[in-house]
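Worked example 2:
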Amino acid sequence: MREANQEEQLTGPQGRVLKLILSWLQEHDSSEDKYQQAKAIWLHYLKLVDPTRSTFANTRLWAAAVLYTLGLQGGYQTMTGPKLAMAFGVSMTSIHNRGTEILRTLAGAEQPRDNLVKMHRFFPSEDAAKAFHELIVFTQRSEEWMNYVATVFEEFILWEKTALSFDLLLELLLFTTCDRVLPEGKSIITFYLERKHDLGGEERNFLERLQASRFGLFQVKSAEKEGAVRFKDLFRGDEVPVAMGGIIAPSGRFMMGRIMPGSSGKGKPWRPVVFLTALEAPMVAALEAEAKKWFWQYSVAHKGWATEEDFIRENGYRFLRWYLDHDTGRT
């Protein structure tokens, strides 16, 4: 009854967005369950946002963004960015940005309160977004990787009570495709780049930088002008210059998250990717105690032939999940 009342109170553009969503689902023979899921996403989002913040004038973009959100949450291959961009005549980057906003709003308190990364910075261009999408499709459809990917997802998110927020899902995909090494000694993204000989320009450049990205625990060694800092990687032992884009990172502070080269070439500053948070001293101590247990287990499993770099590469997402479970500031 409340949902019906809310539908009656929608503005003209808001109502047209809902009609576009339901019409698209009807054209694609979608189930009643998908109808209700899509409607719930849009109505719930409208409840949570300031009604004066947006007029929702670009109804086709908002409809595509809601369907994109539904596709991410349900893993529906018919609702990907490229397909929706073609169907609704809007750019894939715009759909991604609006979908990310919807996901963040719906996640609400489920979001880590101090994730310092702004998600709209992840894709520098539509070519980069397209390249990443094709990598994920390759990962999901290839018979070589499907069982492996399913095993990783089962290990880390099978027990999740709620759908992963967009940044956590994206970090899990990067962990699976860029960090973990298959029995052949290479990551999925390495195999993909080796096979895509025709991939060039911005697409290859972006994927190569993702390939080089790393999840880690860092200590801020020195703060420089305009937010640039030097991170000491506590597991790999080296120091990396990181352009923080105005984010404050006091010297001596501990940080956790993923960073990637900002551009090709040695000596160029890196930048945060998906998740970056500052860790307070008590949490650092508690996490260190857990990490020692994990490293001992990992070393035993590898008969003592385990380096700290191998360990953090293969277990990075475990650190993130631990943090999210133990952040007392979350509500």
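The mean pLDDT is 81. DSSP finds 13 helices and five strands in the chain.
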